[in-house]
Automatic annotation (TrEMBL):
Name listed for the protein in its UniProt record: Dipeptidyl aminopeptidase/acylaminoacyl-peptidase
Top-level taxon: Bacteria
Transmembrane segments: none
Organism annotation: Amycolatopsis mediterranei (strain S699)
A single MF term (Gene Ontology): aminopeptidase activity
Length: 648
């Protein structure tokens, strides 16, 4: 796989299923347009797929309960700012799409009411005079000429979105038959808090959603489950949650299931569990019960909401690099992973899934595919699509599983991706971000590009990662640069036992937390490596505390509040110890690990006489390597390969 082959990374989104109609929005990078193309495809339950819409930016299909209509988002037609996504509907048997919204900053994913007539969604609503809207005098100022922002809270912005308090996310309900003019829609919720994850009650009278405690009165990671009449009125809290909550879904009997995290301790590495509650509308909040164990079960919320089916609920679970489908009994009480029935488990990652009666469809990625639509049932899984054929044609290299132990005897798990040929090959130790996420049993474009260029790539899940239990994830709380270092090096040593790897030519690289680890290892174990590539890294916890969008809570949770400890755990403090060539790579608009983290490290390295380079990508945020502009993604790969060609 070469850098430009990212165009072959065709990724289907969460499928929509009703009867024999199965739809998915398929995304792919388009280098010529320098954008991500997205269109809705129809997948046959007998296999094969065909165009449903032609894009170029169609997404989030949702089929009405009666099967007659499809709602979806379409962007790029000039409605709203920069062609923001707007809600459309079209007949399920084909025909022209009809636009329902003309919101300035676009609409969120549609959610049908049980009556197949109304649709709920959320949307950010800008203050007057901001983001291209007229001010009180009827003038539309340019961004640089907008009035100053008065900021009184720490949660005022977030990476990949921007400023928040002047464009709060609000809840809307629209009639799918309505002929609306711009400005006709009124939000159901106020502008003091973000509403998220709407779902209808089974009787269609209310919309349930998540909101911060006390309607956003103060900064908080927590979110309660709330409700409001579909006709409008005052919202109410119906489930007071222990911490964070998301993706509520109703069972047929009115039981509400949702994903949640307890913030009692170590909340940055808290596993996500499945909860259940029975709301009592108009009475007051109820308390939920946790159905899954906090130590062994970590639900993958990106795969979609819980899916009730009779006596159990389907959820996706992260487990040792895989994402599995498991069934949780509705009467379960903190059930461990071993007690959850396996619906699908393999050396693969379930990206999303949907259920309609007995029919279960999922998007599943494997070590050689970015995602295919698969029909799951009592028999063997049946792959319905061939979206990854162009990718497989590029010569995808297999993932070789590695298992070893750290110096303290702790088990370490990961993979090796080998290039073609006999070797001995130069080696790249690539460390993932997070840290509370996992390297997966799925095609990883970075490993494939590096392996195609002749490098052996070592990846894995050191302590601090997700997918191996809560104790594993919390092992580096107030301990960055300790046992995680042991695990990273132990896996590298395991790979270097092979005679086809060259232990004298090893590079270290990673992004975000992986960038932190790269900087730390270069300073403390630099003799192991020829050079380093540290990307979007945390290098200084003291400034991260105030400059990062999540710094005010993340740093205390993971590092601690002591300035002395923050300096002790900062790679910047040891920049003068680095002796190997060092690339500092960052995005100009990264608000998760802001640009100052790179600038401070680069200057410190150069002042110490290190052979250091700074590479800055304009207009990109923290997610450049995954969802940045396609040409920047290719240019990044080209820069990485050029760097390693010089140093390995």
């Amino acid at each position: 796989m070469r850098p430009a082959d990212i165009e072959a990374l065709v990724v289907p989104g969460r499928p929509a299923l009703r009867g024999n109609l199965l739809l998915t929005a398929v995304k792919r990078p388009d280098l010529r347009a320098n954008a991500t193309h997205s269109a809705v495809r129809r997948v046959s339950l007998d296999g094969g797929e065909a165009a449903w819409t032609h894009g170029p930016r169609d997404s989030a299909p949702a089929i009405s309960p009666d099967g007659r209509w499809v709602a979806f988002l379409r962007a790029g037609e000039g409605q709203g700012a920069d062609g923001s996504p707007q809600l459309h509907v079209m007949p399920s048997d084909g025909g022209e799409a009809r636009r329902l919204t003309s919101l300035h900053l676009g609409a969120g994913e549609p959610v049908w009411a049980p009556d197949s007539r109304r649709i709920a969604f959320t949307a950010r609503v800008p203050e007057a005079g901001r983001y291209g809207t007229p001010d009180a005098d009827g003038e539309t100022p340019e961004p640089a000429a907008e009035a100053p922002r008065r900021i009184t809270r720490m949660d005022y912005r977030i990476d990949d979105v921007g400023f928040l308090r002047d464009r709060m996310q609000r809840l809307f309900v629209v009639d799918a038959d309505a002929a609306l003019e711009p400005g006709d829609l009124e939000p159901l919720t106020g502008d003091g808090f973000d509403a998220a994850h709407p779902v209808w009650t089974p009787d269609g009278t209310r919309v349930v959603f998540t909101a911060p405690p006390d309607w956003g009165a103060a900064e908080s990671d927590a979110r309660d489950i709330c409700a409001i009449s579909a006709e409008g009125g005052e919202p109410e809290v119906v489930v007071r949650c222990e911490g964070y909550s998301e993706r509520p879904a109703f069972g047929a009997d009115g039981t509400l299931f949702y994903f949640g995290q307890s913030f009692e301790e170590h909340h940055e590495a808290a596993p996500t569990g499945l909860y259940a509650a029975t709301p009592e509308f108009g009475v007051g909040p109820v308390k939920a019960r946790r159905l899954t164990d906090a130590e062994t079960v970590d639900c993958e919320t990106a795969a979609g909401p819980p899916a009730p089916r009779g006596d159990d609920v389907l959820v996706a679970v992260r487990h040792r690099g895989a994402v599995e489908l498991r069934a949780v009994g509705v009467d379960a009480a903190e059930a461990p992973l071993a007690d959850l029935a396996v619906v699908y488990a393999d050396q693969a990652a379930v990206r999303s899934f949907t259920l309609d009666g007995p029919v279960l469809a999922a998007v599943i990625a494997t070590p050689s595919t970015a995602g295919e639509v698969v029909l799951l049932g009592d028999g063997e899984p049946r792959v319905l699509t061939g979206f990854s054929k162009p990718l497989r044609d590029k010569g995808i290299r297999p993932m070789i599983e590695l298992e070893t132990t750290a110096p303290d005897g702790y088990p370490v798990h990961g993979w090796l991706v080998l290039p073609e040929g006999e070797g001995p090959h130069p080696v790249l130790r690539v460390v993932h971000g997070g840290p509370f996420t996992q390297q997966e049993w799925a095609v990883f474009d970075e490993a494939q590009v590096y392996a195609s260029a002749g490098y052996a790539v070592v990846v894995g899940n050191p302590r601090g990662s997700a997918g191996y239990g809560q104790t594993h994830g919390c092992a580096i709380t107030h301990g960055f640069g300790t046992v995680d270092v042991d695990d990273v090096l132990a896996l590298l040593d395991k790979a270097l036992e092979r005679p086809d790897l060259d232990a004298s030519r090893v590079g270290i690289m990673g992004g975000s937390y992986g960038g932190f680890m790269t900087s730390w290892l270069a300073a403390h174990h630099g003799e192991r490596f020829k050079a380093a590539w540290s990307e979007r890294a945390v290098n200084a916890w003291d400034s991260m505390l105030g400059s990062s969008d999540i710094g005010y809570m993340f740093v205390d949770a993971y590092i601690g509040s002591s300035p002395e400890v923050q300096r002790h755990r900062s790679p910047l403090s040891y920049a003068a110890q680095i002796k190997i060539p060092f690339a500092v790579v960052h995005s100009e608009q990264d608000w998760r690990c802001p640009l100052e983290q790179a600038e401070r490290m680069f200057v410190a390295l150069r002042r110490a006489g290190v052979s250091a380079e700074l590479l800055v990508f304009p207009g990109e945020g923290h997610e450049l390597s995954r969802s940045g502009r396609p040409r920047h993604r290719v240019q990044r790969f080209e820069a990485i390969l050029e760097w390693w060609s010089r140093h390995l």
